[in-house]
Amino acid sequence: MNGGDSKDDEEEREQVMSEVHLGCPPGISGPHISRFTICLPSGVESSRFNGLFKEEESCTDQEIRFDEDGDLILPRRRQISRRCFTMKIQHNITSSIPSVGLQVWKAELILSDFVLHKMCTSMEFHGIVSLELGAGTGLAGMLLAHAAKTVFLTDHGDQILENCLKNVQLNSGVLNHQKVVYVRELDWTHPWPPKVSSDLATQERFSWSSSELEEVQKASLLLAADVIYSDDLTDALFGILERIMSQGSEKVLYLALEKRYNFSLDDLDVVANGYLNFRSYLKDDSGRM
Predict the structure, then answer these.
(1) Whether the predicted pLDDT of 289 surpasses 90
(2) Are 207 and 197 within 8 A, CB to CB?
(3) Are residues 173 and 35 in contact, defined by beta-carbon separation less than 8 angstroms?
(4) Cα angle: 219, vertex 133, 226; to 5 degrees
(5) Which residue would you say has higher pLDDT here, 23 or 48?
(6) Which domain range does residue 68 map to?
(7) Do 233 and 203 touch, CB atoms closer than 8 A?
(8) Is residue 131 part of a domain?
(9) For residue 152, what is the domain's CATH number?
(10) Does residue 46 sit in helix, strand or coil?
(11) Mean pLDDT, residues 263-285 taken together
(12) Which residues pair with 25 in a beta bridge?
């Protein structure tokens, strides 16, 4: 057995857990359904969400106040608001490193909050075509589907893709049109665009059709959350981003990540090598890192 095989076996055995799942019932090894409540801020027109909410008077005091230490005092709802809806997300409590797409991670919540903010404060995401890379459970992309014309949720591996599709089905009641959300496989190490099989008998469930590839070329928005944890995957991510963003419509990428620190035996120090590798791909307008 070579060193690479040993590392792969270790990653398959090692179980990791997202901090998002700390409040979940202990001892559950299989899928668990969590409910995420999405609430509109006061002053946002619910018509932006195509009648998903019923209009009502605001039940919170929206005056901005600070405590004696200068910290913001968050307004609290005195009753359950009807300007909220719930998204059900099926996920694992723990997983191996290759299967982390079965969990909800903090960066996905941050990205979802950003998407909601943009949907509430502008029309930038309305009517667009979007592609999410490493979608995992699909939370951010499904939230975007309330405004976007078409959303492609992409990841790699049948188990992760099946779980993502299950979440689309669980939330069909709050999605405007289920047909605008596609779950498709995208292996970052393979060429872009993916191959299209003309033989329906051999076409896999999460494979792309020629019409879908034509549609995704029109994408103006790319999303990714918590996809920076392996240098090899980071290298593959930027490789496929270069290919995707050089074709079709002009695109913008919003990427959320957590800067993870680990003790390195090579450096004998606490380092964030994954983050440093990510930063090595970024340059400002002057070409500086």
Answers:
(1) no
(2) yes
(3) no
(4) 135
(5) 23
(6) 12-258
(7) no
(8) yes
(9) 3.40.50.150
(10) helix
(11) 86
(12) none
CA–CA distance, 93 with 22 (Å, rounded to integer): 8
Q: How many domains does the chain have?
A: 1
Q: Which residue has the tokens 């620190």?
A: 261
Cα 87 from Cα 175, distance rounded (Å): 10
Distance CA 13, CA 38 (A): 35
Q: Are 263 and 269 in contact (CB under 8 A)?
A: yes
| Under 8 Å between Cβ of 175 and 52 | no
For residue 212, what pLDDT is reported? 94
Tell me, what's the pLDDT at 58? 45
Among candidates 169, 181, 281, which has minimal Cα distance to 235? 281
Residue 20 has a CB neighbour count (10 Å cut-off) of 18
Residue 270 in domain = no
Residue 274 belongs to some domain of the structure: no
> Does a structural domain hold residue 266?
no
- Under the banding of pLDDT at 50, 70 and 90, the label for residue 251 is very high
